[in-house]
Amino acid sequence: MALTFDSNMTDGMLARLNRHQVASYDNREVIDELEGLGVPATIFLAGKWIEPYPDETRRLAADPLFELASHSYAHRAFHTPCYGLGAVGQAEMAPDVEHSERLLARFTDHPTRYFRFPGGCYDGRALQAIASAGVVVIQFDVASGDAFGHSVPAIVSHVLASVRNGSIVVMHITDGDTAPLTARALPPVVEALRARGYELVRVSTLLSATQSSQSGG
Questions:
Q1: Which of 32, 71, 129, 160 can bridge 46 by disulfide, Cβ–Cβ 3.0-4.6 Å?
Q2: What is the count of structural domains for the chain?
Q3: 54 in a domain, yes or no?
Q4: Residue 29 placed within a domain
Q5: Residue 217 forms part of a structural domain
Q6: pLDDT at residue 111 is higher than 90
Q7: pLDDT tens digits, residue range 31-52?
Q8: What is the pLDDT of residues 119-133, one digit of tens each?
């Protein structure tokens, strides 16, 4: 199974950051925990998150535990309603994804072509609109509950109750008021998953294993 992490950044979040209402949207403690626990992970970065945190992006790109993927550029909704996100027009969808991919390529010479829709919100129209960008859409079957979560035990118990073989779990590396408890929830989640015999892998490894199984390899 795969633990994946999103970095969100909307114009509203940037405004709060610039007004010093939020100290940072870079949750370095989550990355510290992943490195300390030796957990491979796929990290979906929003372009507007990358721009204020280039050093953190370089850190992620340089670590062989991690692979980087796109979480759009502007983190607007590709289908509404979507957790209060503003909508991106259909004609802007492919350019937004392509902008994100170009930005990622400045930091790593081995970006994935994986893409996750902001908020996990999409429809057939959105899939058709971004087809020209040539990305592989990666969603998730377990939302950890760390986004705006208020209880570490609740996050941990929800993940453990929801996972199965082949699961993709979404968590966040967005600090501040968005996902403040992720770093504290991560160690007990990882410990319990490993105790159950789960191997934690990046999405690319998970997909390769699935394809090999389907082909009888």
A1: 71
A2: 1
A3: yes
A4: yes
A5: no
A6: no
A7: 999 999 999 999 999 999 999 9
A8: 999 999 999 999 999
